[in-house]
Amino acid sequence: MPDNDQPELPGSGKERLSPIPDPHDPGSVQHRETAVAGEEFSVEKQIDLTQKSYSQGELIRRRFFHHRGAMISLGFLLFITLMAVSSIGYGFIPGWWPKDYTVTSTVTDGGRPSLSLFPPVWGEQPFGQDDVGKDYFALTMRGTQRSLTIAFTVGILTTLLGTVIGAIAGYFRGWVEAILMRITDLFIVIPLLVLAAVLGQSSGGGIWPLAIMLSLVSWTGLARLVRGEVLSLREREFVTAAEAIGTSPWRIIFKHILPNTMGTIIVSATLTIATVILLESALSFLGFGVKAPDTSLGLLISTYQNSFTVRPWLFWWPGLIILGIALSVNFLGDGLRDAFDPRQSRSSD
Amino acid sequence: MLRFILRRLGVSALILFLGSVFLFFITVLSGDPLEDLRESRERTAPQQMEARIRNMNLNEPWYVRYWIWLTGVARCVTLNCDLGTDSRGADIGTALVNAAGSTLRLVTLATILAIIIGVTLGILAAIRQYSGFDYAVTFAAFLFFSLPVFWVAVLLKEYGAIRFNNWIADPAISLTATIVIALLVAFTLASLLGGDMRRRLVTGGVSAVVAFAAITYFDSVGWWRQPALGLPLIILVAAAAGILLTYVAVGRSNRKIFYAALTTVAAGAVGWFVFNGWIVTPTYPLLLLMFGISIVAAIVIGWFWGGWDRNIAIWVSIGTATAFAFATALDQLLRNWGPFLERKPRPISTIGSGSPNFSGPFWTGVWDWGVQLILPTIVLTVISLAGYSRYTRASMLETIRQDYVRTARSKGLSERVVISKHALRNALIPITTIVAFDFAGLIGGAVVTETVFGWKGMGAMFQEGLQRVDPGPVMAFYLVTGTAAVFMNMMADIAYAFLDPRIRT
Amino acid sequence: MTATTTDNTSGAVLDFADVDVRFSTEFGSVHAVKGVSLHVNPGEVVALVGESGSGKSVTSMTAMRLLPSNARIGGEITVNGHAIRSISEGAMRRLRGNDIAMVFQEPMTALNPVLTIGTQMTEALELHGIASGRAALERAIELLDMVGIPEPERRVKQYPHELSGGQRQRVVIAIAISCDPKVIIADEPTTALDVTVQADILDLLRSLKDKLNTGILLITHNMGVVADMADRVCVMFKGELVETGTADEVLLNPQHDYTKMLLGSVPRLGAGRDQMGINIADVEVEEGAELAIDLQNLVIEYHRMGKPPFRAVDDVSFQVRQGEIVGLVGESGSGKSTIGRCALGLIPAAGGSFRLLGQDITGMKRHQLKAIRRRIGVIFQDPAASLNPRLPIGECISEPMVVHKVGNRKSQEQKVYELLDAVELPREVYNRYPHEVSGGQRQRISIARALTLDPELLVADEPTSALDVSVQAKVLNIFSDLQARYKFACLFISHDLAVIDLLAHNVVVLQNGRVVEAGPREQVLMDPQEEYTRRLLAAAPVPDPREQRSRREERHALLRQLGDEIAELKGDSDEFHSASAHSDDLG
Predict the structure, then answer these.
(1) Is residue C45 within a helix (H) or strand (E), and if so which, with residue range?
(2) Under a CB-based contact definition with an 8 Å cutoff, are residues C289 and C321 in contact?
(3) d(CA C457, CA C319)
(4) Over the stretch C116-125, which tens digit does the pLDDT of each residue have?
(5) CB pairs under 8 A between A and C
(6) Is the Cβ pair B467, A287 closer than 8 Å?
(7) Does the interface predicted TM-score (ipTM) exceed 0.85?
């Protein structure tokens, strides 16, 4: 019998009896001991029914919304997405920015950006113009839109594929697992970028085919993680108990196992989005991703990399936006990981 | 152990084979290799098309073309490789030999640096958890994770090459820059060495003053164009390495190991005089020979001093000797910086992996390719060290929580021994498994980096081959990088077995 | 070194005076130890007893100064005359290992997996200047020999994973005594071990204090171990010391209510049925009624990569009749849990037949198996893992009804409420989550879940092994009430002979996958025929110091009769002290 005299964090799933009650924290196992006759010396805690019940999901949400870095990142990401969608519009939704990213016009002020923070000025061409007078703000927003679309599409497809394959491989083992592991090995000998480049070339440069191709190569990481989680969860006694009851395999996977791997899945999906943003831009830079006439952030950098010395803003804006998105998505993932697995978090030791 | 390696090798060979089939297939499928000629209005277009069909065996189905490629590769066993011709009829084998060298040099160097720096940073961050240093490393890791490779590469090309070339023409560091650098050094050292507020202030203050003085001094004597270490500094560096190694290995208590390190330094100084001619104008075999001699000398010294801790003494001596050798090489390199600048006033070119037709003494020759390697290596190292530092930190923190670390503390061992002897080795075990995946990532990164820096390496070969839908160069790229990845993977496996006795039996 | 000797406990090697520990956590301060005072004299074993959350481990760790940095400590702690709260970190390190050593609970994790036994033993010797180089290695071999490890020359070169659990614990003890400490803190040193190994380790510790005159602070929750080892006993409850006294005083004539309650919760081997308000009625089964479980020559094998399959269960036959509780007893590796899993249809049998409720389940199809599973309930050991953390408690309990499509939502809910009443939990926990209740309550929920479909057979795999004794008593009480009410047959798997004695009608003793002895409870536990059963029974300690003394002597007599060695420290004390003598010169 383990004697864990040290307090375990609430919500970690590893709580054991803690020495001292703390009435203020709802998730804590340390409720005030209300002495009941005959149970005065019980080491079992009393179930305090006066307090609100919190599910694990609520506890996780609570921790997540208290994570400052994640919240700032979420704000930034929402801001960028809103800007990209609302400014030039999306599909039939009209945007508020009057200039079109395809229209050339006269170059004013050498194409320099009119945006400044002190004093705050937005101006006619906040991000400047390129050498033929296209409005760079509209162009960048278009690129951001395309890059984000690809990233989120791949994120969703990858998560679905990876979760299902990983869960099947982990639960049923057998040939699905064997194939999964060999495909994973394949990524050791053929780098992700190389495979993505070859597939990206076949996709022909449109964003939807590219998104599908990228999904086909990026699911393995998540599948491997989910498989690992499932392998360890199926040894847990609640899964064995479910099997012993006669629960069907699919019900066990979807009702008992997958809800317990949500942490891994959500964190990994988030990080996949960051990876895909970088992958897509690298491919477009190399010429195997999005191709003209469409555009993306990577393609913009590729097109204007040689004008660094003359018009540095053509290089800086798309690069900074890629960096900003990737960085905020990564911080978001970190915040989610802390929320799901408080043992790793910074606020505790 | 041998059986373990052989089995891994067999599995890897199978994967390598399957990967080649797959890559060949999707490359052939990725487009139409004759597209440009079909649209071409040139009169020679039909002849060109015919030539290309001949060069690439386009009349055959893909599996026949793969078989032709595979049999050509199979002849490598008799050292007679035939990798076919590319779409323009050039022999791929010849192009590969030139390309492989520079890429492998780049990738290997970046991997080693990333592992060393990343793991060190991770360990330090874990030991100083929640310190300023930890937060800085964490933030830097996130930043590096999120950097687009090509974007950093273009930035470095601008600031690291073009602006550096401008600066080195008339090097001077402004007062502001000096102060900023000194403060950065002070902050890093203070948060790294830790301690209470007072100790940190003292560490920070002293290191700031030292850094400031050093930069001012270097600036005033024109060190930036005429740098050198000199024997006293070499001895100092090697002695410092020896003391550090002794401290990490056994602490202050064991004098014998300390003496072994010092003896090694003394022997190195003697060797420096004896071999001075060779050191100034060496060749690669001579350098290797001298390094070999110093290692042998170190082993002898360690053996002589070691007593019951012979193994540790030998390793510390070898480490010290290596430090001495590297300091000597660095000294020679620095001394030849001036001559190199005279031959090449703008030292870092923005394109290519070395200057064509460069001629000069040995050490300036090393500068010529070495200087070209610096920027791409920085890009690749930075990108992949982030992963290593995060992973090491997590692994180290997990290990420190283990029961056996508590057992070690309960014996009265000092923090240094607990970390270096009990925690570190266990923490490194899981890290070996990410080396393989990371190496694949690095090769991908190398493709992009080479494009930006205009190297005629494997990356360029792959990119051009793919653009022409020509499987020949793509497969040649795969042959080298895939084999390198398998080799790297095996090194990681061996390291794993070396670290973890549980899988050895 | 600064030495401040306190007068009141002259001669004590370890002294806690009004020790107080608080942990500052994310959710405020946790007061773990509230003013505890106790001391350990040379050659004396002081047992610090308590259940989870009593603060006993925290108290002991203050003496090593190894608590995490968020601990705030008050009071005075003296180790061999050194007031350790005021000395420097370097001085404290010199004390650790040299004056005060520790033996930990978990021998599997207490040793570093990547270093050889020799390395881990010599480093303390070298650090404290007792021996170095080859001399240290020789000393390590000597120490291993002393703690009774065969072939010590070979063992020093081996890694921990090559040793068994008991051997590892001996290595941990060898490391602890290597520098001849004045006091050893043994934190649940036998909890993770099998009962026969536990008896050996306790013998070893006892001879160690006799021969070396070392003081031992023994932390344990097991009253049998206390009775076997302790000279004096200190009982802790929620951070406070509620009772101290000699072992005889505390165990035979407890004063504090908590101590009384604690002792009243311990099932006593040999005391038979009527304990702790539990009474299992005898069963009357009509002849010819179908058997709940009927095993004939069952064989279960585990397949391993590249090696011949491992035979976990070999030719096992026994029966469980309707309404009867059969105790399946054995040490780790005996195959008892494997049989339990096979009964649930989770592992296939490699040979023989396994008839459940009259039907042969070996080679049964999925849907047939599902039909039979409806009639079986299951309880597992680990309360932390046995409930799905994402499902509210109500859904956990109603899950079997949902799976087998029994009743509608309304009737299912009604059934859950009935079951919650039966296991004495408030109905309001229906919408709570497992993490909001404690271990014993979770185990009660597991019992409720197992009984949801009114099973004819219950498989209980160590259901109370992870619980505190007082909690175990409560759960066993509820279990026996429910058995009386629902009359299910039960395969009760346990390593604890006293619990089996309390509950079972029939007992099956397993060793290495084979049945050693089987029969009615009285016969197997009172009058064992087989050597292994006798060893097992002799090794189980009882919480009565006098009775335990005679049981110990009986066990030693039995071992001598069987030609076994009795575990003890080899060599004599003068030799030992002189070998580690120069540690004092350096101190």
Answers:
(1) strand C45-49
(2) yes
(3) 12
(4) 898 898 888 8
(5) 201
(6) yes
(7) no
